[in-house]
């Protein structure tokens, strides 16, 4: 998939490009609004990642242009701007998602995957893990034919996030940020991921051992699968 | 007491004291004046009589060896002329009694001896003291009435004038000091006055408010700019660390250290995000258009926080009417307010403790109490718990950076919600939110 990264902060643009390229996206980078405007007019993209705070261009104008020439392209706004209204304005202008800085690259990728699923209508996105069936569309988990109702929304969020990043170790901080990221509180080190994982394991082990959910000592958790 | 009242009271009292003193002294003064006047008249009468004696001779009044006396029918005045032995000398004016036709009467008497034709005569002219004293009573009376009237008039004038002249002062107090919500960002309105002191006061107050406002504005701008500017470098660092994790050839040992870095970065990120949130709230960047029931909000908080309750085996009770709907609020902010309060109630609780959330309808508000069975807050630290970065002793034991309650405070203030805290050491704390009527939907 083709991604246009519009970000005036070169170091950040580079990191995004590096990450997405590794994950099989084809990236182009623009540091200015002007060059982005030219690129949008000529090329076709599946994703446009747009930093609103460009020095030479009104970011929302660029969004309008992008939506005009590529209505099918998915736009994700990346911004450090504080105006709460920006989010509303951006989404009104047709942006598909909005990610405030600082964001995690994993979070960015998971949002992109969610948009892909939504846009390209991957119905019944079901992944099988040693007999467990995780349905990412309907957001439920089953063992063979029995659905496991005890799994809470939070717990499913964790499984889904680990699954989107399968075979990759996610730190507790990254998991915390994904499921509690929008809550502002003053704990900097208290995450309760371990407790959640413990509960998930307990609930799954009623049916079968969930060995695919691995603890990576000292680092975090990962879902191991070769599917 | 108001300045105006004080001035008027002082004026009235001082005038009354002076008038009373004067009225009390009046008899003495009148007596003195009367005496002088009477003495003058007596002297004049004496001179006139001596003149007559000189012109017409003593025989006009007195034969040999006889004496002369005359008085008015009511005996207010009398005159007498007697022969006295030679060498006798008298020239006085004094109060004495005389027996006139069986009446003993007090007189002011002029006694004067003179010599005519080798004989010495004693002249006495008397004026009844009663007739002199008669005038003092009525005089005192009239003086008292007139003076009291005058005093009342001047007091009235004083009040009116004090009212008029102090009006700018009360205006300054009313509009600039009492009515002003601080810090207020209203425009300067001059208070019209010709009194230079008040002009000075008005301008000084205005200047001070301006300086404070500027300081507030600067602080807000600084926090807003600083937290924004920090976001980009944090973002870059975070991405770099994440990309490093992706590299397969990195030893686990190194990964653990990268994890430490990530943790520290997360801490920096939390602080910055929190400061940014506070500055956004203070700059009125949030809309208040949501409607949500208190119960639903608390349930959402519970869903997010239940894992923390489980970890410490703390029971959580929501005893709130399910039909209390909040209107004109920001759901995201209120969620964060309640989350932080409940989160604190967990953090500072003891294991196996309880948290109770109760609601109560008051006359003009709805109050939500969040009561924990935790370690409580020291009385001397209670006033500071809402200050930014103020780490009170209890919070040092926890992984917090001292912005939890400041967020709560900012969100509450933004919604005109007041918070009160009651706490007892080692027994627990109760945080009460007083939600004003305008945020509650009336059925």
Describe this structure in words.
The complex is a heterodimer of chains A (227) and B (443). Chain A is an alpha/beta fold. Helix content of chain A is 41%, strand content 22%. Chain A is built from 8 helices and 12 strands. Chain A has helices at 10-22, 33-42, 59-69, 84-92, 105-119, 153-164, 172-180, 193-205, and strands at residues 2-6, 26-30, 47-51, 74-79, 97-100, 126-129, 132-135, 140-143, 146-147, 170-171, 213-216, 220-223. The model of chain A has no long low-confidence stretch (mean pLDDT 86). With 443 residues, chain B is of the alpha+beta class. Chain B has 3 domains: 3-136, no CATH class; 196-282, Signal transduction histidine kinase, dimerisation/phosphotransfer (DHp) domain (Helix Hairpins, Orthogonal Bundle), CATH 1.10.287.130; 290-439, Histidine kinase-like ATPase, C-terminal domain (Heat Shock Protein 90), CATH 3.30.565. Chain B contains 9 helices and 12 strands. Chain B has helices spanning 3-56, 129-134, 136-178, 196-246, 252-282, 294-312, 331-347, 393-396, 404-414; strands at 68-71, 77-84, 91-100, 103-116, 119-128, 290-293, 315-319, 325-329, 354-361, 365-372, 418-424, 428-436. In chain B, the strands form 3 sheets. Chain B has a 5-stranded antiparallel beta sheet. In chain B, β4 (103-116) and β5 form a beta hairpin. In chain B, α1 (3-56) packs antiparallel against α3 (136-178) and α6 (294-312) packs parallel to α7. Chain B is rod-shaped, with a radius of gyration of 49 Å. The chains are: A alpha/beta (227), B alpha+beta (443).
């Amino acid at each position: 998939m083709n991604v246009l990264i519009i970000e005036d902060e070169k170091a950040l643009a580079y990191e995004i490009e590096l990450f997405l390229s590794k994950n099989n996206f084809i990236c182009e980078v623009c540091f200015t609004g002007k060059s982005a405007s030219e690129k949008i007019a000529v090329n076709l993209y599946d994703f446009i990642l747009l930093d609103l705070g460009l020095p030479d261009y009104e970011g929302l104008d660029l969004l309008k242009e992008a939506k005009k020439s590529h209505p099918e392209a998915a736009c994700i706004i990346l911004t450090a701007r504080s105006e709460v209204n920006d989010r509303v304005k951006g989404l009104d202008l047709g942006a598909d998602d909005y990610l405030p800085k600082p964001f995690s690259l994993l979070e960015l990728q998971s949002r992109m995957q969610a948009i892909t699923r939504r846009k390209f209508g991957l119905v019944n996105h079901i992944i099988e893990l040693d007999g467990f069936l995780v349905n990412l569309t309907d957001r439920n988990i089953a063992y063979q034919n029995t659905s496991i109702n005890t799994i809470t929304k939070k717990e499913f969020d964790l499984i889904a996030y680990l699954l989107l990043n399968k075979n990759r170790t996610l730190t507790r901080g990254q998991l915390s940020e994904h499921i509690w990221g929008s809550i502002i509180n003053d704990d900097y080190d208290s995450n309760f991921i371990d407790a959640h994982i413990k509960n998930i394991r307990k609930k799954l082990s009623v049916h079968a051992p969930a060995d695919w959910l691995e603890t990576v000592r000292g680092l975090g958790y990962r879902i191991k699968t070769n599917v | 007491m108001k300045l105006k009242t004080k001035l008027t009271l002082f004026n009235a009292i001082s005038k009354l004291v002076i008038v009373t003193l004067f009225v009390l002294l009046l008899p003495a003064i009148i007596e003195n004046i009367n005496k002088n006047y009477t003495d003058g008249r007596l002297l004049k009468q004496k001179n006139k009589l001596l003149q007559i004696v000189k012109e017409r001779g003593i025989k006009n009044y007195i034969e040999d060896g006889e004496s002369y006396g005359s008085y008015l029918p009511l005996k207010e005045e009398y005159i007498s002329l007697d022969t006295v032995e030679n060498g006798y000398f008298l020239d006085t004016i004094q109060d004495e009694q005389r027996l006139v036709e069986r009446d003993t009467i007090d007189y002011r008497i002029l006694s004067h001896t003179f010599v005519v034709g080798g004989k010495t005569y004693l002249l006495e002219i008397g004026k009844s003291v009663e007739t002199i004293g008669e005038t003092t009573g009525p005089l005192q009376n009239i003086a008292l009435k007139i003076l009291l009237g005058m005093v009342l008039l001047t007091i009235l004038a004083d009040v009116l004038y004090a009212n008029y002249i102090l009006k700018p002062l009360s205006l300054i107090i009313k509009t600039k000091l009492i009515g002003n919500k601080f810090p207020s960002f209203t425009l300067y309105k001059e208070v019209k006055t010709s009194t230079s002191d008040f002009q000075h006061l008005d301008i000084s107050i205005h200047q001070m408010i301006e300086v404070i406002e500027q300081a507030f504005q600067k602080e807000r701008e600084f926090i807003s700019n600083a937290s924004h500017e920090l976001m980009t470098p944090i973002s870059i660092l975070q991405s770099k660390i994440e990309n490093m994790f992706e590299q397969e050839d990195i030893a686990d040992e190194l990964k653990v250290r990268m994890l430490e870095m990530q943790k520290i970065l997360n801490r920096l990120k939390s602080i910055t995000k929190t400061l940014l949130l506070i500055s956004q709230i203070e700059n009125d960047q949030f809309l208040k258009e949501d409607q949500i029931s208190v119960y639903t909000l608390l349930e959402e908080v519970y869903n997010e926080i239940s894992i923390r309750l489980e970890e410490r085996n703390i029971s959580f009770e929501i005893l709130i009417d399910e039909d209390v709907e909040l209107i004109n609020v920001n759901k995201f902010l209120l969620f964060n307010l309640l989350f932080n309060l409940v989160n604190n109630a967990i953090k500072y609780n003891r294991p196996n403790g309880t948290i109770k959330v109760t609601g109560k309808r008051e006359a003009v508000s709805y109050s939500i109490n969040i009561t924990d069975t935790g370690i409580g807050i020291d009385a001397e630290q209670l006033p500071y718990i809402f200050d930014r970065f103020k780490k009170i002793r209890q919070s040092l034991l926890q992984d917090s950076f001292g912005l939890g309650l400041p967020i709560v405070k900012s969100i509450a203030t933004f919604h005109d919600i007041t918070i009160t805290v009651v706490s007892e050491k080692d027994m627990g704390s109760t945080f009460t939110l007083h939600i004003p009527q305008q945020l509650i939907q009336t059925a």
